């Protein structure tokens, strides 16, 4: 948990085209609060990755989803008080939140929530992050954002340590941290092809 990163980042939110137009016109984002959201409740953005935001919207449109016409909008985000899971301190805090969550479930004789085998539904991770939010809220320290790196997809070549869908995601809890919304230029959504 810190305010050590650069003040502002660009994030990209995959959504339906009608939602994108409403956001660009000034409507507020609606936070997600699914029990499987990787970083707990908040508005989700792909950091510095407009194509991945659009890919998400395309993938969602193929499932049972409200996305019919995939789109992506960009946002300027102030991280504020950020639980940055790329830092040792944040990971220690999350680990301790897990310990308290497990103890309460053990006391109640209930099984902990579980992440799915493919890690696309992260019920356990969500419950742990929500526990940490509760602990911090009780101490008067409300987090503005949560940031995490996720390794996803297949290796990009044989024996690669890089995966095709690896990304950094941000969940914005404090909507005042979304400082502006912008239309993503088409040239930022084009696939890279090497020069001949």
Q: What is the topological layout?
A:
Elements (H helix, E strand, L loop, with lengths): L7 E9 H8 L18 E5 L2 H12 L8 E9 L3 E3 L3 H21 L14 H16 L6 E6 L16 E6 L5 E6 L13
Parallel strand pairs: 4-5
Antiparallel strand pairs: 1-2, 1-3, 2-6, 3-7, 5-6
Distance between the termini: 46 Å
Strand order of the largest sheet: 4-5-6-2-1-3-7
Rg, Å, rounded: 18 Å
Instruction: Compute the number of helices.
Output: 4
pLDDT under 50 segments (min length 5)? Answer: none
Strand content: 15-25%
Helix-strand category? alpha+beta
* Mean pLDDT metric: 94
General form? globular
Range of helix content: 25-40%
- Biggest β-sheet, characterized? 7 strands, mixed
Order of helices and strands: EHEHEEHHEEE
Q: What is the count of β-strands?
A: 7
Description:
This protein has a seven-stranded mixed beta sheet with strand order 4-5-6-2-1-3-7. Helix 3 packs across helix 4 (123-138). The chain is globular, with a radius of gyration of 18 Å. The mean pLDDT is 94. Helix content is 29%, strand content 22%. It is an alpha+beta fold and 196 residues long.
Notable features of this structure?
4 helices; 196 residues; single chain; 7-stranded mixed sheet; globular; alpha+beta
TL;DR of this structure?
It contains 4 helices and 7 strands; from the N terminus they run βαβαββααβββ.
